[in-house]
Design a protein that fits this description.
Rossmann fold; 2 domains; AAA+_ATPase; 13 helices; alpha/beta; binds adenosine-5'-triphosphate
Length: about 290
């Protein structure tokens, strides 16, 4: 089956820049995947998100090479309105992307822009609110909502357009740890229950790492790793170079490994670490 995202040798220079923001990017994503994209500030994560939804190069000058295909559409040659029905985007700051006063109007906005008939709009609003689990917020004013609730409204507005892919650019950066876990769980549900392909850009990978099968790392405009979080977090040099957040339990087991007392897979979560530690102590006790 044709991959849902296929980035081929993509290079992009912002106007007047001599240094490419992205260089020689090759990335293939199958429909239904949930992958993380991480890397330090300035690595090119947002630029890649903008290339996927066609804002680059359609609304942002600059020079590009290679191509970006989403659901068989070349994003540089496809009108953004057509792409909006295929790929949805959610950004860091919910305030900056919400335009309406009331939740249901926010969801209606994108649908009206795509000239969806009124009855269908009603159905889609109800459906999207239910998918995201915020039906009770339908008539609420956006101003009264918490940051996490606003971000859910932004996700529901994207989902209402029935995209096959959702790209989220650091959607939890303004949220506390509880809000972060909630949003990640919601995205997992949208992926699992509705088959939406998710590309989640995130610097806080401690929360994400145990929940993601695949993590792509960008640095200075290039992909420097594409593997499972466990494989990536095992590479001490790479994580140091990228300044990646290593979960404390993983850091502890790295130390045990360096000391030669642990040889198994690195745990990414506390429960996993506790289990491994139990096994390790049992093993040590049986030897003494
Ligand atoms: N509008 C712009 N004009 C010129 N250069 C830009 C523009 N936006 C980003 N850049 C540059 O492109 C490179 C990649 O930036 P980008 O925002 O994609 O990185 P990022 O990984 O998303 O970083 P952050 O985590 O800080 O959002 C950086 O060197 C940045 O300075």
């Amino acid at each position: 089956m044709e991959p849902i995202i296929k980035v081929e040798n993509f290079t992009f220079y912002y106007p007047d820049s001599q240094v490419p923001a992205l260089a020689g990017i090759n990335l293939t994503v199958r429909e239904g995947e949930f992958l993380g994209l991480t890397g330090p500030a300035g690595a090119g994560k947002t630029t890649l998100a903008l290339a996927l939804n066609g804002i680059i190069p359609n609304f942002q000058g600059g020079r590009m090479g290679g191509r970006v295909m989403v659901a068989g559409l070349d994003t540089a040659k496809t009108p953004c309105a057509r792409l909006a029905g295929v790929i949805g985007s959610v950004f860091q700051d919910p305030e900056a992307q919400l335009v309406a006063e009331v939740v249901e109007d926010e969801l209606a906005f994108g649908l009206e822009n795509l000239a969806v008939p009124r009855e269908e709009i009603e159905r889609r609003i109800g459906g999207a609110l239910e998918m995201v689990g915020i039906t009770s917020l339908r008539h609420r004013s956006l101003r009264e909502l918490s940051g996490g609730q606003k971000q859910k409204v932004a996700i529901a507005a994207a989902v209402a357009l029935r995209p096959r892919v959702l790209v989220l650019d650091e959607p939890t950066s303004e949220l506390d740890p509880r809000g972060t876990v909630e949003i990640v769980a919601l995205l997992q549900r949208l992926n699992r229950d509705y088959g939406i392909t998710i590309l989640l850009i995130e610097q806080k990978i401690s929360v994400l790492a145990p929940r993601l099968p695949r993590l792509v790392c960008l640095n200075k405009g290039r992909i420097v790793a594409d593997a499972s979080p466990r494989q990536i977090l095992a590479q001490e040099k790479l994580t140091a170079e990228l300044g990646l957040e290593v979960p404390p339990v993983t850091a502890l087991f790295r130390m045990l490994r360096r000391a030669g007392v642990y040889h198994g897979d690195l745990p990414l979560e506390v429960d996993e670490g506790r289990r491994e530690l139990g096994l390790l102590l049992g093993h040590q006790a049986s030897r003494t």
